[in-house]
């Protein structure tokens, strides 16, 4: 029966076995209970050293270390985003201006054009546009379409590292002077290690200021009907009367006086008159000194 497989129906109990005791696993050594590995099986039979039950090391098939120590946390790599997806719809906005000469004009010699310079981080392109002013008299709008601006004759193009407040930028023969930028642009440049200069005020255009002054509607103020002659006719001999006192008796040689305050409505003037006092009111506030 030793060659039979260990399957139901092929295993039989030994009917000749007389000992069914199990070897003890707990023994005392120096007065302390310790665990002892079994040296014999049931009834003193030798152990099946090839069995999984008596292996000193756990079976790698049936033993899962994660049940004891937990599963290890694996780092999940972040999803890759290409450059055009990461910087999509993100732009750097600057305020700039350029001067245009006006020849053969007795009223002006140059004009100042304010423009919006936009740098697209998606593909490193630049667009320059002038805000539209009603009845300006000259074409406005997009001056430089969205494209890469050549920086020099070596084939280099303008990069966002080249843009800052107070920097001159040349495009299509026109020199633009950058004056300021918005809050997000300043924070982005500073996060990239660029020291952003202070904002500069945009210069005013003398031609635009002159047109505003010429087109300003003049307002006229109608004089009030309540003039001096009208007040004389309506409020003549009409007076507001008030009575007041001057009480200075707390000080040495102080007096108590009554006054009449008159306000003339005809010409908005005041008059203060001192009123005579009665006998009791004229009494001295202090007693005579007795020798």
UniProtKB/TrEMBL annotation:
GO terms for cellular component: axoneme; mitotic spindle. One of its GO terms (biological process) is mitotic cytokinesis. Residues 88-193, 236-291 form the DM10 domain. Keywords: Cell projection, Cytoplasm, Cytoskeleton, Repeat. One of its GO terms (molecular function) is alpha-tubulin binding. Signal peptide: none annotated. The keyword DNA-binding does not apply. It holds the Pfam family DM10_dom. PROSITE patterns: DM10 (PS51336). Its main location: cytoplasm. The keyword Cytoplasm applies. This is EF-hand domain-containing protein 1. It comes from Lygus hesperus.
């Amino acid at each position: 029966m030793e060659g039979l497989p260990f399957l139901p129906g092929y295993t039989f109990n030994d009917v000749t076995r007389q000992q069914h005791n199990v070897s003890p696993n707990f023994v005392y050594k120096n007065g302390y209970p310790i665990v002892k590995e079994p040296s014999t099986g049931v009834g003193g039979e030798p152990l099946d050293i090839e069995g999984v039950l008596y292996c000193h090391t756990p079976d790698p098939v049936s033993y899962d270390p994660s049940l004891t120590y937990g599963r290890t946390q694996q780092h999940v790599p972040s999803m890759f985003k290409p450059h055009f997806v990461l910087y999509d719809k993100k732009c750097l906005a600057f305020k700039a201006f350029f001067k245009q000469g006006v020849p053969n004009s007795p009223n002006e010699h140059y004009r100042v054009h304010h423009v919006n310079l936009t740098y697209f981080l998606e593909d490193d392109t630049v667009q320059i546009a002038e805000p539209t002013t009603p009845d300006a008299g000259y074409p406005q709008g997009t001056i430089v379409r969205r494209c890469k601006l050549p920086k020099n004759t070596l084939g280099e193009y303008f990069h966002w590292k080249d843009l800052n407040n107070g920097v001159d930028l040349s495009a299509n023969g026109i020199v633009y002077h950058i004056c300021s930028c918005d809050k997000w642009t300043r924070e982005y440049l500073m996060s990239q290690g660029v020291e952003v200069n202070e904002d500069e005020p945009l210069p005013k255009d003398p031609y635009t200021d002159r047109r505003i002054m010429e087109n300003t509607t003049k307002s006229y103020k109608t004089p009030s009907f309540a003039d001096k002659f009208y007040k004389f006719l309506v409020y003549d001999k009409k007076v507001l009367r008030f009575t007041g006192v001057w009480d200075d008796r707390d000080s040495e040689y102080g007096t108590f006086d009554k006054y009449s305050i008159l306000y003339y409505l005809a010409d908005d003037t005041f008059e203060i008159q001192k009123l005579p006092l009665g006998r009791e009111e004229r009494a001295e506030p202090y007693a005579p000194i007795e020798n």
